[in-house]
Amino acid sequence: MTPTAQGGSVWLARADLARLLDALRSRGYRPLGPRLRDGVIVYDELESAEQLPAGWTDEQAPGHYRLRRREDDRLFGFVVGPHSWKRFLHVPEVTLAATAGGGRWQSADSPALEKLAFIGVRACEMAAIRIQDRVLTGGPFVDPHYRTRRESVLFVGVNCTEPGGTCFCASMNTGPRHREGHDLVLTEMAGGFVAQAATPPGRELLEQLGLSAATSEVSSAAGEAVEAAAVRMGRKLATDGLAMLLKTNLEHPFWDEVAARCLSCANCTMACPTCFCSTVEETSDLSGPTASRVRKWDSCFNADFARVHGGNFRPAVRDRYRQWMTHKLSSWFDQFGTSGCVGCGRCITWCPVGIDLTEGAARIRQAPMQGHEEEEAKIRRGLELLAPHSVGVSTAAPAGCLEDCSMVPARARVVSTGYDTADTFTMRLELEDQTARGRYRFRPGQFNMLSLPGIGECAISICSSPLNQVQIGHTVRAVGSVTRALQALKPGAAIGLRGPFGSSWPVEECEDADLILVAGGIGLAPLRPVLCQVMANRASFGHVRLLYGARSPEDMLYARDLLAWSSDRAGLEVQVTVDTAGPDWTGHVGVVTTLFKHITLQPQRTVAMVCGPEVMMRFTVRELLRLGVPPVAILVSMERNMKCAVGFCGHCQYGPHFVCKDGPVFRYPQVERTLWKEGI
Questions:
Q1: What is the CATH number of domain 410-501?
Q2: CATH tag, 508-637
Q3: CA quadruple 156, 157, 161, 163: dihedral positive or negative?
């Protein structure tokens, strides 16, 4: 039995590395590995072992990277460069879908099943790939482009024996020794490598080379070299309690201090091996009949990343840096069960002004804000309140969703369209395909992604009754290029539809309870399906009250519905107010929260559903809490920049949540610590 078959280490002489690459090619793999180019070490195709950066090492410090010659000719005597293996798996640009004549979307061709061999993968980088596996293949939706590439890779890892000046993988428990995910791993010693296989493909490779067992002395020396590297890291990060520490210090002075230096250039996110944010662009040819949908890398540091029609949720650099760091080291745990940082140090090295997140975390730990213990207690109380409830916690793709994550819309037709206000219209759609029509099922509060080839796509709440799943209604305010293009559509026009997505109002759970629905402006649209469902089964609910506020009488939605709901036979209490009005208006004037002075509640049997501008929802929640409504019985519908709807683009990140997957409907304790803070 060979040493490899016995699971032991073998000695791979330096000359045998060329044979290893030949063996990989004979098995159909294309070897990729580190190469010297333009003054840095990057990952690229290896045509021969001679292209490895023999005798080079890297000097890394905050904002500093230089290559210099080593005193020996080791092949892996450096740490990591500006590129990560992410560029071959979650590629910087990929065509998701395209249209032919007639505007019908078709899935872009899947990438050819090319077998790749990654040579020289560090332990921290292998940990980063496992993290991206969780993000892009471990949830309710799977990215088929990533999965196809990921399944065809063989990993040849290298244990680090010389850490860099910005490395802190030992703090993150991701290195310097490989633990899992690799097929075989090498530890470089003088004259060669101690090699060990971890998977059947790795064992087959080493057996093909016919290598001898490594001596116990050499194996021990290799292990000691790796262990020594673990205590010589250039940086350290104390991770104990760090996630909660960041949650409770969202207003710490550090965020202003770091913003004074940060250029918001996105270098850190582009170099990071785990960042996955992206955007989707649609382009059409000059003649018009064809269009393509292309996904590209994006960054939460970009100024427009959190922009929606009403403004920018993170307008300041402090907001964007806080979002990045708290997501990486804190809320990533909530979403994926692990840290989003592997300690590779790239974000420190490639920051032009040398910002060091390990120093930032230490700064907050040394001088946390006053009252952060009380904030932590509040968070824990919120989690305890939420424990029996599941609304807003996404564990599977929404029932009835047409989405297969290829980002290819189903084709629908406009049945009818009509104006509600001067700039707001309601359109009803019907899916063309009978099979899709049979699968599609939405719940109150969910949304669809509506698109037009070559123009773009946007998230629009469903406003129609859940009792009619064939004709799907959307109330749209024409404020941007996509919504204005939707406004121009006539009955019979084709439109793309993906959905339904997101969490929903828990109408079935509210039977026998009193309901209070509070809406501001177009926020009445996501609540309309609730009212339709309640009206269809009115006897199953207690007292039902609608409080609705609009900017002016001319801006009120659903005038006919409001009259019908206000009638005595409807069994609803409806109160309406406007911010401003002319002399002909005889109703209430004032913001919607002023209506609370006219009502009484039985708070312990009341469920509140709130949708509207964020500032309006804050004050509404305050009134409801003042009246004694339990926090878990208060539900709010949040808005963020929902671009992909499946949690892959990062644009709708909101604290520990993706609004597209975990929302838009949240119970108040889920968003309590973020709802009251600006720039989240």
A1: 2.40.30.10
A2: 3.40.50.80
A3: positive
